[in-house]
Amino acid sequence: MKYILSFVLAVFATTAKADFTMLVPQGPGGGTSVWAEIVAAELQKYLDEDIVIEYYPGARDIPGFNEFHNNRLNDPNVIMVSHGGNAVSFLQEEVDYDYREYEAIGLMNLNIIVGKLLNDDMENGVRFAAGSGNTPEAFAMTLLLCGPGMSVEEYIECFQEKVTWVNGMSGGDRRLAFQSGELNATRENPAAYLKHVAPNENATVWFHHGILGLDGVRVDDPNYTGFLFEGLFYQRWGVEPSGEFYEAYNLVRSFRDVLQKAMWVSADNPNRDRLVAALEEMTNNPESVAAIEADVGKYEWVIGDDANALRDNLMTFITEDALQDLVQFNTEALDLASVYKPELAQ
């Protein structure tokens, strides 16, 4: 049974029917939904048409993207927004969609920020709520807490000893549990971190995953300097992170973070060039940039063919070993239904 909300939200409802629909694989209030509302409100200023948001929520953010691929791909007025959850699912679950088959309008090259309680050194263990797209956090925590040089089996054992992975919490419950101290770590996209974690005087940044550039090099987040995972790992263990488990982490975080706020159309969409031009105009307008950055932070946009190139670069991260380690850790440590998809490996 498909779960779809029976309404759409007009961002600027100046006409009875908008000319573009932005399909978001979440319900209202989710991080990607909020981002899409902000961006659509600005982007439509540079088009002759309005944009409406259509919400299509479902497990692990898969149904919305499947809907786009199976039923909406040939509609030239539909823009699909990808989310970190369906990016992770692309690697480890049977899904209908395939990012390689679409053209990118553009993406905001974002990050995920992991917060912790201010005076907790995390030495006595981590209490953290599971959720869609949270697999990279589990990998990063395991590496930081357990150190270098272990087998996948040893990392799984260490994770089970040091991390309490709480399933079944909604986003609101997770935030309340962190504020009360029931959880001692949390994670948010940049917009949600600014809203829900940064104002908390009892919280601070633990680590973040960094920004992946077009050149394949990962750099610090300019909004949260000094908390890049690799830097913190080196400070604690005295060596750079490496090995198969780290490569699996690098794979899943790269897909999740690069694709978590990207806009797609079909490969032959006649509106693609016009949408790309509108996005370029939007990102060159100081007022629109300020409106978006006020809620999200300062992050670079990757537009048009550059976004396609970044997507293509992500595909080179997929190896048999990384995929197998990802599936094994998901299955044995996180109790996630995962499948090995050798057809993805380069």
Write the element-wise H/E pattern from the N-terminal end onward: EEHEHEHEEEHHEHEHEEEHHEHHEHH
Number of strands: 14
Overall shape: globular
The proportion of residues in beta strands is 15-25%
Q: For the largest beta sheet, what order do the strands appear in spatially?
A: 1-3-2-4-13-5-14
Round the mean pLDDT to the nearest integer and report it: 91
Give me the Rg, rounded: 20 Å
The low-confidence runs, each spanning 5 or more residues with pLDDT under 50, are 1-18
CATH structural architecture of the largest domain: 3-Layer(aba) Sandwich
Count helical runs.
13
Give the helix/strand class: alpha+beta
Work out the helicity level: 40-55%
Look at the structure and give the CATH class of the largest domain. Alpha Beta
Question: What is the CATH H-level superfamily of the largest domain?
Answer: Bordetella uptake gene, domain 1
Number of structurally distinct domains: 2
Written overview of the protein:
- It is a single chain.
- The chain is built from 13 helices and 14 strands.
- The chain folds into 2 domains: 8-108 and 260-315, D-Maltodextrin-Binding Protein, domain 2, CATH 3.40.190; 113-255 and 319-329, no CATH class.
- With 346 residues, the chain is an alpha+beta fold.
- Helices cover 42% and strands 17% of the residues.
